[in-house]
Amino acid sequence: MDNEKLIRRYIIVGERRTSNFWWASVIFLGSLGFLFTGISSYSGIKILPFIESQDISFFPQGLLMSFYGSLGFLLSLYWWLLIFWNVGGGFNEFNRKEGVVRIFRWGYPGKNRRIDLVYILKDVEAIRVELKQGLDSQRTIYMRLKGKREIPLTGIGQPLTLKEIEKQASELANFLQVSLEGL
Question: Is the bond preceding 109 in cis, omega lying within 30 degrees of 0?
């Protein structure tokens, strides 16, 4: 048999989504604008050519702008580190050849950075889909193991359409030869 028919791997994007690159960049540039305006109001030197920041008094406006600029800079730095570390990224591998399911994710730096869970394929009882409608709708695929333990298989912040989640869940249930619940 082909390896394609025996091994199935789903990539989980994690923090390296386009929206995270966009927002980290926007917050970084905005924070620099606030920070430079605050510094410029303190020093009286025109740092940004398109802003007349010498006209802004340092206390309280310039000080507050420096504070917001610093907070924004720290937030964007944190966001860029999350993107660099790819927190939450990884894969789900279903291997009928070896009889195992492997869930791999990258975490925060430290001794537990690599989250690598391996389960025996025989312990998988069902694939369950949970649909929560509302303002912050969630569509999650869970793998239920013996002992009623459920492991989420979809990434956080990875909104899938109803059609995509149905297709992925049914393909996975067929591949694993287990029941599909929740649809």
Answer: no
Strands 138-145 and 90-95 come out as unpaired
**CATH top class, domain 3-14+87-181:** mainly beta
Tens-digit pLDDT profile for the chain (183 aa)? 566 689 999 999 999 999 999 999 999 999 999 999 999 888 888 888 877 776 788 889 999 999 999 999 999 999 999 999 999 999 999 999 999 999 999 999 999 999 999 999 999 999 999 988 877 778 899 999 998 899 999 877 667 788 989 999 999 999 999 999 987
DSSP 155: P
Q: How many angstroms separate the CA atoms of 68 and 74, rounded?
A: 10
Domain with CATH 2.30.29 in the chain: 3-14+87-181
Give residue 173's identity as a one-letter amino acid code: A
How far apart CA 84 and CA 82 sit, in angstroms, is: 5
Note the pTM of the prediction, 2 decimals. Answer: 0.83
Nearest to 6 by CA among 87, 70, 81, 101: 101
Q: What is the rounded CA–CA span in Å between residue 102 and residue 116?
A: 7
Neighbours of 24 (CB within 10 A): 20
